[in-house]
Amino acid sequence: MLEVRNVVGGYGEIQILHGVNLTVHRGEVVGLLGANGVGKTTLLRVISGLIRPGGGQVLYQGQDLVGISPARLLRMGIAHVPQGRHIFSDMTVKENLLVALDRVRDRVNAGERLEYALNLFPRLRERYHQLGGTLSGGEQQMLAIARALAPKPDLLMLDEPSMGLAPVIVESVFKTIRQIAEDGTTILLVEQNATAALHVVDRVYVMETGTIVHQSERLDDSELQRIKEVYLGLSDS
Ligand SMILES: Nc1ncnc2c1ncn2[C@@H]1O[C@H](COP(=O)(O)OP(=O)(O)OP(=O)(O)O)[C@@H](O)[C@H]1O
Q: Which residues form the ABC transporter domain (predicted)?
């Protein structure tokens, strides 16, 4: 579904990605793990059209995405939840979701999609008329995912959904991510929290300084431990 081929690029003169190769097949949840600052977010920005790569290809269902605007990518079914939960803080939960649906009314049933999002995140239904800015961190993350999901994307890219959340909330958000995948959305998940990703992903890639240095077809406890020790510099848990 998605094939990143030898992508290089970064910010101006600063090269961050040094030839990244990665594939996501339809129906999978693929994890992209890596320590701070190795380029995971930069790669998602390239895929979602926010940064133009200096070289390489990003193929989506065989079509090269390079040069296509983020708005058009959204209409093509690619959604990106950036790090830091970009929601409208002075709008209610309902308004945040309706704005997301406005752009795609011609191709989805807005009422159905709203119900789907609220069923996935019952907490958002309880907070339906509350302003986004007054939600807890976990609720804001739920709203950010719900906003991206409402337009019925085929591919959902999530950038560190666990960031800054208490373990119990992380567990709940990740359970929902698995549910989203089971409902048919393909997912590329960027995470530093490898343990949280363990029960959600089908396969993982590990990135170090702008390249993929390892991939696992299965992520069990011992493979997780090895990735943590060898690539993430973590010695336990
Ligand atoms: N707008 C920018 N201009 C210049 N350099 C940037 C910009 N954004 C990020 N960088 C640099 O690019 C490098 C990779 O950052 P990136 O956010 O892609 O890493 P990451 O793997 O997602 O890290 P983290 O897990 O900490 O978010 C870092 O050295 C960062 O300082």
A: 2-234
- CA–CA gap between residue 52 and residue 132 (Å, rounded): 31
Distance, CA 192 to ligand 1 centroid (Å)? 13
Q: How confident is the model at residue 235 (pLDDT cuts 50, 70, 90)?
A: low
For residue 105, is pLDDT > 90? no
Of 152, 167, 194, which residue sits at a domain end? 152
- Residue 74 and residue 102 in contact, taking contact as beta carbons nearer than 8 Å: no
One domain, residues 28 and 97? no
Q: Quick check: CB of 40 below 6 Å from ligand 1?
A: yes
Which of these three, 152, 177, 204, is where a domain ends?
A: 152
Q: Is the CB of 80 under 6 A from ligand 1?
A: no
Q: Ligand 1: distance of its center to the CA of 11 in Å?
A: 9
Beta-strand runs (E) in 69-173: 78-81, 155-159
Q: What is the ipTM of this complex?
A: 0.94
- CA 35–ligand 1 middle distance (angstroms): 11
At 110, give phi and psi (nearest 5°): -60, -45
13 lines ligand 1 (CB under 6 A): no
**For ligand 1, is residue 32 a contact (CB within 6 Å)?**
no
Check pLDDT > 70 for residue 38: yes
Range of the domain at 169: 1-77+153-237
